[in-house]
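Per-record layout

source: Afipia broomeae ATCC 49717
name: Methyltransferase type 11 domain-containing protein
length: 212
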Amino acid sequence: MTNDIDRAGVAKAYAAWAPVYDMVFGKVFDEGRKSTIAVADAIGGRVLDVGVGTGLSLSDYSRTTKLHGVDISEPMLRKAQERVRAQNLTNVETLSVMDAKNLAFPDGTFDAVVAQYVITAVPDPEATLDDFMRVLKPGGELILVNHIGAESGPRKIFELAFAPLARRLGWRPEFPWARLVNWAAKHGGVTLVERRPMAPMGHFSLIRYRKG
């Protein structure tokens, strides 16, 4: 089975999940989601939330944080727009259908870029990370929460068994930490600020990079 993930496949997978996404994944991803938001709110200013999905995170941000959300899935974004209207989230400035690798924002637009569970679900993670850094202001932060593949032990065995289902969800389950290390070294001008394990069982990590 190929490890490649194509853009159309990701969009199709998340369109299918849109009606039940909050119910199925809300609690599983809760700690990572709230941790990234706390970091972004501490930075403040203008924040880009990539892969905003159904907008589950939007109401957790401070109302003083100016939010722009993008997602590849139009059905997901329709739910996010309904949530913004229902909860009167006036700090959400835009919600747009957009490819994470080709963000339609000028260089240096945002104080922080948040990407929750996104990097392992895009066809070209390195190029996507490059574009995240492009739209950050100097000194801005890229805040990721994502699954990082285990190198050995029981978690690696579980991940290998889970891989076929993960790919149906549009995820790349074997994503190694070395891939981020190599990206940062090649990109340059990127400083690792933090890598913090998240529940459940350290299966996810919060990762922060500063630009410049």
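summary: The chain has one domain: 5-209. DSSP finds seven helices and seven strands in the chain.
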